[in-house]
Amino acid sequence: MHILKRIARICKADIHAMMDQLEDKELLLKQYLRDMAVALEQKEVRQKKLNQSRHQAAQRLAHVNQDIEKIEQDLEVALFRDRDDIARLLIRRLRPLTGLRSDMQHFVGALDSEIAHFQESIDRQRHQYERLQQRVTVFFDQNEQSEWDMAPAGSVSASVSRKLSDEEARLELIRRKAAFIQNKGGPPQ
């Protein structure tokens, strides 16, 4: 039984090692960056919706305040004219509006707080995204440079490392002489 567990553990380790080799680190980093960018975009869309909700609530609150102000003015006129029946009616209309105004003010305040907190979160995530993006760029640059540094001399392209044959050298000499004569207008004196 103990031997089977050890064999199973060895198989798992081999599978994990094989999966690590199959995973391309650069591709994974790029995918993580894309995922972060998508998450950031989704948060920004939610932030816009919160701002829109706050704007609508503020407009509704402004309308309620206008209604209250109008009723208050009418109430003053009714009291001035000694019209208690109209004053009572206006007070009955005023009471629910003041409650609504209070609720709306709390709602707008809560939205302001949520928007500020959410904006901090977005700013923090955007900063982390930009830092990670810079680190990934540096990592890719360093990785590419280390690949060039570690490349054996024989792996450099054949056109750079191979020697020219005598015929190729003569042909190149003829081309250069022709170009030189063409540029200078004639053979050198």
Structure characterization notes:
By secondary structure, the protein is mainly alpha-helical. The protein is built from 5 helices and no strands. It has a domain at 25-142. Helices cover 88% and strands 0% of the residues. The longest helix is centred in the middle third of the chain and has 67 residues, at 84-150. Mean pLDDT is 82; it is low at 156-161.
Features:
mainly alpha, about 190 residues, elongated
Helix content: over 70%
* Helical segment count: 5
N/C terminus separation = 95 Å
Described by the principal axes of the CA atoms, the overall outline is elongated
Percent strand equals: under 5%
Q: What do the pLDDT scores average to?
A: 82
Unreliable parts: 156-161
Per-chain topology:
Blueprint: H1 2-22, H2 25-80, H3 84-150, H4 158-161, H5 166-184
Helix pairs in contact: 2-3
